[in-house]
Amino acid sequence: MAQYAACPAFQLGRPRYDQSTFLGRLRHFVAIIDPSTLFVSEKRLRECVKLLDDFQHGTLPPGVTDLQLWEAQKVKQAIIHPDTGEKIFMPFRMSGYVPFGTPIVVGLLLPNQTVVSTIFWQWLNQSHNACVNYSNRNATKPTPTSTFLQGYFGAVTSAVSLAVGLNVLIQRANRLSPATQIIIQRLIPFPAVASANICNVGLMRHNELSEGIDVLDGNGNVVGSSKIAAKHAIMETAFTRVVLPMPIFVLPPIIMSYLEKLPFLQMNRRLLLPIHSLVCLATFSLSLPLAISLFPQMSQIEVSQLEPEIAMATNSKVVTYNKGL
């Protein structure tokens, strides 16, 4: 019984852990963002895909365990987009978000930013975010390149404008002490990034609101396209993208403001950047799975809440849709 609980019977296309609970979703996404999947070889990926195909067609070789099947599905889900069936470019996979995003976070939180450095790091961050959003979008409907560019430039503009504007205001706030100004300046990236993330998701995926996204019945069959489900998907994703940067851009400045006062670090200033980087890496690694676990990737919605044509097309009371990440 203990072995069964640790490794449940394999179900193709279904999560290993219960997605109706936060803990189950957390365990699921910890597996999805596992950086070790970045090093999976092409041969290993083909083996995983073949193993899952064999399971689907009932031609599994003898001796294959449920654990092997779950691991094969983990590798496939981490690398291949569930809608397009194509490989996601390594830096834009969710498993690459922390390794490739941490240096950008460190840059955004560097003290004594100039206008040029603020613009550069905000641009780089939004460029990375835009590519991650696009690569992990709901792709049941084609997205024009113009929509991607619109979202990208909108996010960059909002992030840079807010970050530079807040920096200028703080520098002109003579009533604040120099120490307070430094702390507030370090916190500026959060509102800039959070607002840009909302702009990015909204602009890049607004076509889903007009065209709808596919909703699936209990057997995985497409019932139809729903604009209401698209609205839910975008709102859930946008909320996640606001929660995600909160600990990343708030905790490190607070932690570093205390660490920098330690006599050891005051005597060894060269260690500040490595320690700052480790603090950013730790907060990023913890906050990413927590944020994306707020909602299931394959979310469910009652048919009664959707368009009448959806209700007429299925006998199911609940349908699912790919929220995107």
From TrEMBL:
Keywords: Amino-acid transport, Membrane, Mitochondrion, Transmembrane, Transmembrane helix, Transport. GO terms for cellular component: mitochondrial inner membrane. Its main location: mitochondrion. GO terms for biological process: amino acid transport; mitochondrial transmembrane transport. The chain crosses the membrane at residues 97-124, 151-170, 238-259, 271-295. It is a multi-pass membrane protein. This is Sidoreflexin.
